[in-house]
Amino acid sequence: MGIGINGALPWRLKQDMAFFKKITSTTSDPEKKNVVIMGKNTWLSIPAKFRPLSGRVNIVLSTTLTEVPKDVHIVKSFEDAMNLIDSMISTVEDVFVIGGASVYKKAMYGPYPCRVYLTRVLGDFKCDTFLPQIDEEMFTKIPNPSSVPEQEFEEKGTKFNIVVYEKCQN
């Protein structure tokens, strides 16, 4: 369940990055945008030339960050991010949490509907940051939606696939 090492991804998988861009950018309503929520360290790990992530509403959780591009929203907590999204709901289609571990935990185990798009990298990589455990009593693996490829990929000897989990409704 490793997701990071020294503030970066432990692997470079172009097909996975292309999927990430497509799933977080594509909307069915051309008048709307998707939101990406991330912590400060995730924001800082994105190469400067790619910040903010284009075509998406970027929300960064931070109590210390003060300077970001004008189209980026800084909020102090996950709850503040959700309140901000509520205020712009007419222009938002989907919300994606893109890291780090503590932000994933808030989304996955908070009182929010949640779907996890998990890239399973089938190899051993040294990691110092991990996705919270997916509790099988709270989440169910579902068939991949049509927007999510089913096949196993391989790049430079590293195999990976994408699986989807959905939080059970109580």
UniProtKB/TrEMBL annotation:
GO MF, one example: dihydrofolate reductase activity
Domain DHFR: 1-167
Reaction equations catalysed: (6S)-5,6,7,8-tetrahydrofolate + NADP(+) = 7,8-dihydrofolate + NADPH + H(+)
InterPro entries, alphabetized: DHFR (IPR012259), DHFR-like_dom_sf (IPR024072), DHFR_CS (IPR017925), DHFR_dom (IPR001796)
Gene Ontology CC: mitochondrion
Family: Belongs to the dihydrofolate reductase family.
Pathway(s) per entry: Cofactor biosynthesis; tetrahydrofolate biosynthesis; 5,6,7,8-tetrahydrofolate from 7,8-dihydrofolate: step 1/1
Top-level taxon: Eukaryota
Enzyme class: oxidoreductase
Annotated organism of origin: Elysia marginata
Keywords per UniProt: NADP, One-carbon metabolism, Oxidoreductase
One Pfam family matching this protein: DHFR_1
Biological processes, Gene Ontology terms: dihydrofolate metabolic process; folic acid metabolic process; one-carbon metabolic process; tetrahydrofolate biosynthetic process
Known EC number: 1.5.1.3
Membrane-spanning intervals of the chain: none
Protein name: dihydrofolate reductase
